[in-house]
Amino acid sequence: MRNSGFTIIELMIASAIMAIVMVFTMEIFIVNNRTYIKIDSVVDTQQGLRAIASLLERDLRHAGMMVPEAAAICGIDNTDAPDLLYISDYTAINPVDAIGSFDGARVQGGVTNVNNGPGTTLALDSLTIEPDTPDPSYDTDSNGVNDSDFRVNGGVIIVDLTNPGRGSVCGIVTNVNLGTDSITIDIKTASMPASASGTLIAVPALEYRIDSNTLFRNNLRLADGVEDLQVVYFLDSNGNSDLDAGELWGITGKDYLAADRDARELRAVRFNVVARTRSEDERFTDGFFQATENRDAGTTSDGYRRRVHTAIVRTRNVGDRVEGT
Fold first, then answer.
1. How far apart are CA 259 and CA 170, in angstroms?
2. CB neighbours (10 Å) of residue 6?
3. Alpha helices of 210-288 — where are they, by DSSP H?
4. Do residues 226 and 274 make contact, with C-beta atoms less than 8 angstroms apart?
5. CB 276 within 8 A of CB 306
6. Which of 134, 138, 131, 169 is closest to 152 using CA atoms?
7. In sequence order, what DSSP letters do the residues of 125-168 get, joined into one string?
8. How far is CA 144 from the centre of its chain?
9. pLDDT at residue 212 is higher than 60
10. Distance (Å) of CA 119 to CA 116, 157, 184, 237
């Protein structure tokens, strides 16, 4: 009577077949896992990009709300770095029972010109821009009571109320002094053109900037993996209410210089936000820095997948404003 069982050869064949099946199974698992990671990373990037664009569009639509049109928007146009964008801060304004617009906080001391650079201190007639019934929006000394419409790490736009065609300068507020009603600013744009006279005003603003692939709004971290912000300004220079050829600034060959552009001519803003995935993929060979507006494309693949969101926003508070009486 023969004993039942497997021979050594049969066991070796079965083991070999099992090993082959396991290798193919692991290959399928690895490929599927890699694909899932790629798709999840791209979807996450796209969702973050949509959220950023939605917030930026909302802020741009409110640019110039209840402040002088010349102070609606200001920016720095870079060809080798992300642009900086300053939008008048509508969250600092209480529109209840208000008719018309507010002039902004007037700069005191006969100052008629603001120069580029850090540490510029300006005394204001008030730290709030509502003149009749001041309504401060921010608590700058953390005592639980709102005391200013300007805040540290917030933006500021400065224009000449009596001669708004001089253009604007903008920067970041580094200090708010409640005792002297003064603010200290790091001016980021070119200096304001010199003038023998003028009435300078300051308007609180929202600053959008990118630092080390992180997007900030008033120094608050919005999103990581954001590589570029490029802005184009549509200025109706001839006043015919049409966007004609030659009226786009911030494109190749036509850099936008905030110091000598009149924001009262602004009719629309086009922005481009470039975001990349959290991690690179060594197998992806088309991961080049994306070219938008006056930025050049990258020449070396780094393995990152990128998405670009482009939108055009009309500035409804500039150009066709109807003032109250």
1. 9
2. 10
3. none
4. yes
5. yes
6. 138
7. S-SSS-SSS----B-SSSSSS--BS--TT-EEEEEESS-GGG-E
8. 29
9. yes
10. 10, 15, 6, 34
CB 309, CB 229: distance < 8 Å: no
Structure tokens at 41: 């990373």
Q: What are the domain boundaries of the chain?
A: 44-314
Q: Which residue has the tokens 């300078």?
A: 200
Do 38 and 281 form a contact (C-beta atoms < 8 A)?
yes
- What tokens were used for 194? 């010199």
Paired sense of beta strands 73-76 and 84-88, if any? antiparallel
Q: Give CB contacts under 8 A, 24+ apart, made by 214-220.
A: 215/52, 215/273, 217/55, 218/151, 218/153, 218/154, 218/155, 219/153, 219/154, 219/172, 220/153
Tokens describing residue 235: 């200025």
| Helices (H), ranges, 62-126 | none
Query: Between residues 171 and 237, which one has the greater pLDDT?
Result: 171
Q: Is the pLDDT of residue 116 over 70?
A: yes
DSSP 1: -
Q: Which residue has the tokens 């905030």?
A: 258
DSSP of 296-307: PPPSS--S--EE
Q: What is the DSSP letter of 267?
A: E
Cα–Cα distances in angstroms (integers) from residue 263 to residues 167, 224, 318, in the given order? 7, 30, 8
**0.90 surpassed by pTM:** no
Express each pLDDT in 268-294 by its tens digit.
Answer: 999 999 999 888 887 888 889 999 999
Q: Rounded to an integer, what distance in angstroms lies between the CA atom of residue 153 and that of residue 171?
A: 10
pLDDT in tens, 253-266: 887 765 567 889 99
pLDDT value at 298 more than 60? yes
Q: What angle do CA 282, 287, 288 make, to 5 degrees?
A: 140
Report pLDDT for 17: 86
| pLDDT at position 308 over 70 | yes
